[in-house]
Amino acid sequence: MTLPRTHRDDALIAAAGLVCGLVLWSFGLHTQGPGTGLPDGPVVLVPLLTMTALALVRRTMPRTALLAGTVAVVGDQFTRGNLLTVVMFADIVYAAVVYGPPASARRIPVTTGLITIVVTIGFLAWFRRPEALLIGVVTSLISFFPAITGAVVRNHRQAADAARLRAEQTALLAEMDRREAVIAERARMARELHDMVANHLSAIAIHSTAALSLDDPKTSRDALGVIRENSVEGLAEMRRLIGLLRDSGGHDEPAAAPTLDGLDALVRQARTSGAASGLTFRLADDRTPDARLPAPVELAAYRIVQESLTNTLKHADPGEVAVTLRSADHGLTVEVTSPFGGARPGPRAPGSGAGLVGMRERIALLGGAFEAGPVEEWGEKIWRVRAVLPVREDDKEPSA
After folding, report:
1. How many CB atoms lie within 10 A of CB 317?
2. In terms of CB atoms within 10 Å, which of 77, 179, 259, 279 comes out highest?
3. Are 293 and 397 in contact (CB under 8 A)?
4. Topology of 259-400 in CATH?
């Protein structure tokens, strides 16, 4: 069994107490007069040496040091006495409260206070002289007051440790919030980038493949026209996104976000891009006239239609693509249906699946419902994207 290592400060206290006690003993300075206690001689050094040894373990074995120190200080009263023995005992009482277990820290001040009261009353009843009160004062100075001081110091240390722990936890939570905010912002940027550019790039990929695979000048010319149109629009969208991300210092107004008023142009563009694949497009806007929706809802609805049209250009079979908007009791319903069966001729653009993930994330942020997948309707298999965007009453914008 290895003994606990002595702290450097404890070794210094023990050494200083021993040296000072030996100096007082060599000069014959004692706490009691001649004729009291045991005869003069080295026996007076026994309590001092014991207290010096206990000072070495005042921090590592506080309860043991207190019990043995109490025996030593009582034994010192039967000799001529040494002042440093008493002083070092007071330090051991203080250390027992500061470094001891919580139960000892609570009990020692109470116990030393009761001992001080009992000693004071006992000596006052024995001597029946006011000077007996001095014994109670000395007892309190070497036991009760060191214990109270230790309790105060321990409480301050615990309060400081608790404050430091709270500060560390607050810093940790702030860092977690910062990371979550960064991740959320990156996800938002990824959705915006995908939704704005994927539609144009998909059309470019489809028509460039058609131009390369079909040896028809008119088809190639039409495909190049669609490629140029989508390239220009895609570049404009990229510039808008870069403008939003660049720190302009607050001097420039941010570009306006797309709204549902731009769905006609979006469907016309899809109709041009999908003509070579045998796709037709129909827009049915059954919203309440003059109804105004919050900007986040309009942006989400626009992006859902845009991404759904992009997916139809990539994967839909020839036939009609229907875009339907309906006002609901507490929001807006967006639905896009397209033929689905795997019988599409001609080139296809590759897909990554990020579009469906982005749409789900947008709807989840608004607290709505989203579903996408193949369904049977009138005996035909179609792919349906349906989103319900809720709008609270206090979020609705007044109509113009």
Report:
1. 19
2. 279
3. yes
4. Heat Shock Protein 90 (3.30.565)
